[in-house]
Design goal:
Layout: E1 5-14, H1 21-40, E2 43-51, H2 55-63, H3 68-85, E3 92-95, H4 99-114, E4 118-128, E5 133-135, E6 153-162, H5 168-177, E7 182-183, H6 185-197, E8 202-203, E9 205-206, E10 222-223, H7 225-230, H8 232-235, H9 243-248, E11 253-257, H10 261-274, E12 282-286, E13 289-291, E14 294-295, H11 306-313, H12 315-325, E15 332-334, H13 336-366, H14 378-399, H15 403-424, H16 426-429, H17 436-457, H18 462-471, H19 481-484
Parallel strand pairs: 1-2, 1-11, 2-3, 7-12, 11-12, 13-15
Antiparallel strand pairs: 4-5, 4-6, 6-8, 9-10, 13-14
Bound molecules: 5'-O-[(L-methionyl)-sulphamoyl]adenosine (MSP).
5'-O-[(L-methionyl)-sulphamoyl]adenosine binds near residues 11, 232, 259 and 289.
Length: about 500
């Protein structure tokens, strides 16, 4: 049987500035999904990239005295370095200025035109160049965009409207039939009620803009940047007839931030329906990181820089913190104090301690080799059962895109294993020759917990998980997870390779 396919995407990021914590959040989350599904044995395709056209980029380039493509090249180079640094395993990186993408944008417009889904008219109304979106008069707050606070501009030009209103009924029906399409639930409800209130046609082209893809049938018009951008999810697969397209579309999970929900949950499905293409299976809209309670913004210069944080605390601690600290879907505050607390409590105390004391006891009581277990008593059996439950729980939480809950389940197991050390008292068992069998069972059980934990944590903390495994003399994790995570696969007699503590405490 061929492996199940799994296609996961991030939004493509604007190149007006270097990526910050918010971009790294979505990208790390997507990476965890990609790694987890690969470990399960799925055939994964993980896409990220950059959104390079539009007014915003054009003006940012002007402001820095570059051409738009010079700016884009510079930001792309640095973005790629950041993704490498953060151990992101994307399979492709799409740039909207690439030929392979622009061709598909033109094809999409051609098809919309041929399907009668466009009509030529006049647009007159407000526009936010920062969000690249059209705003109604009553959306404005004191003349500014309600989302980002940028001063709205008047736009009056000829445009091809996309007949989005024509898809309202179909979209509502689709939402009724697919209540898991937009997650979390609150976002689904938000989309549903807005669509219920009505859908307007969308201005899909602009004549006042040079830095955009020209329409094939009317070169005075250029593609509205959001339609250009959304198309990346299929252009990167070689739509319409590419092999990747046939294999991976529709996407399994499209991760986005809650600010771009409307584009993905309404405009994107309507476009796909107009093209007669299947809709993605799940759109997950996550929340926002704030800095001391404040929204991060360029004007406040309060963006958390992933490079600076990872230089100080390490990549794995950062990845762990982002996904553990705030439930996916909610908002939360980023603070170094909270990060240090997580590192010290969860990584150094709980996990680090379990690993270090287990390895130390194997050295001390078993000559550095993991003993074969004897018959399991009730507590060893309970630990074994909990390990199996944890594997299943992580699987179901990841299927639900609930990273913090998956990690909570792993830490529950770690906590129970630490208590098992205290209640089984290996140091007492070691002092009585008659209790050797009990001691062997304890040491073997702890090793198994650590091995299984290293598998489950690998998608979140690839480097630390691999280091944990190498201290247990195990190679990098390999699929299929459900087999590898079964209890009892550790080979007794294996010598461990205890090294330095993996999770040192940080001075607060
Ligand atoms: N280019 C569009 C997306 C097009 S996708 C077809 C865009 N780019 S962006 O660079 O502005 O933002 C991309 C993502 O970063 C969004 O999902 C947004 O939610 C996320 N974040 C930006 N700031 C954020 C935080 N402070 N916290 C969490 N994520 C945030 O929008």
């Amino acid at each position: 049987m061929p492996a199940a396919s799994f296609y996961v995407t991030t939004p493509i990021y604007y190149v007006n500035d270097f990526p910050h914590i918010g971009h790294s959040y979505t990208t790390i989350a997507a990476d965890v999904l990609a790694r987890y599904h690969r470990l399960r044995g799925a055939d994964v395709h993980f896409l990220t990239g950059t959104d390079e056209h539009g007014v915003k980029i054009y003006r940012a380039a002007q402001a820095s005295g570059e051409t738009p493509i010079q700016l884009a090249d510079r930001v792309v180079e640095r973005s790629k370095l950041l993704w490498q640094r953060l151990e992101i395993t994307n399979d492709d990186f799409i740039r909207t200025t690439q030929q392979r993408h622009q061709r598909v944008v033109q094809l999409v417009f051609q098809k919309l035109h041929a399907a009668g889904a466009l009509w030529l008219g006049d647009y007159s109304g407000w526009y936010c160049a920062s969000c690249e979106k059209f705003l109604a008069e009553n959306d404005l707050t004191e003349g500014c965009c309600p989302d980002c606070g940028t001063k709205a501009e008047m736009a009056a030009e000829k445009t091809y409207f996309f007949k989005m209103s024509a898809y309202r009924e179909r979209l509502l029906k689709f939402l009724d039939e697919n209540p898991g399409f937009v997650r979390p639930q609150a976002r689904f409800n938000e989309v549903y009620s807005r669509v219920k209130d009505g859908l307007n046609d969308l201005s899909a082209t602009r004549t006042s803009l040079e830095w955009a893809v020209p329409l094939p049938f009317d070169p005075a018009h250029r593609a509205y940047v959001w339609i250009d951008a959304l198309t990346n999810y299929i252009s990167a697969l070689g739509y319409p007839d590419g092999e990747l397209y046939r294999k991976y579309w529709p996407a399994d999970v499209q991760l986005i931030g809650k600010d771009i929900l409307w584009f993905h949950a309404v405009i994107w499905p309507c476009l796909l329906m107009a093209l007669d293409l299947p809709l993605p299976r799940t759109l997950f809209a996550h929340g926002w990181w704030t800095n001391r309670g404040e929204k991060m913004s360029k004007s406040k210069a309060n963006f958390v820089d992933p490079v600076a944080v990872t230089e100080k605390y390490g990549v794995d601690a950062y990845r762990y913190f982002l996904l553990r600290e705030m439930p996916f879907g909610q908002d939360g505050d980023f603070s170094e104090t909270a990060l240090v607390r997580r590192v010290n409590n969860d990584l150094a105390n709980d996990l680090g301690n379990l690993l270090h004391r287990t390895l130390t006891m194997i050295e001390k009581y078993s000559g550095g080799a993991v003993p074969a277990p004897a018959e399991a008593d009730a507590s060893a059996q309970a630990l074994r059962a909990l390990a199996a439950e944890t594997v299943a729980e992580v699987d179901s939480q990841i299927a639900d895109v609930q990273f913090s809950r998956a990690l909570e389940a792993v830490w529950h197991l770690v906590g129970v294993a630490n208590r098992y050390v205290e209640t089984s008292k290996p140091w007492v068992l070691a002092s009585a020759e008659t209790r050797r069998a009990e001691l062997d069972t304890v040491l073997y059980s702890l090793t198994e917990v650590l091995r299984i934990v290293s598998l489950l944590l690998y998608p979140f903390m690839p480097t630390k998980a691999a280091a944990m495994r190498s201290q247990l003399s195990l190679g990098p994790p390999e699929p299929p997870l459900d087999e590898r995570a079964q209890w009892g696969r550790f080979k007794p007699g294996t010598s461990i390779a205890k090294g330095k503590p993996l999770f040192p405490k940080i001075e607060e």
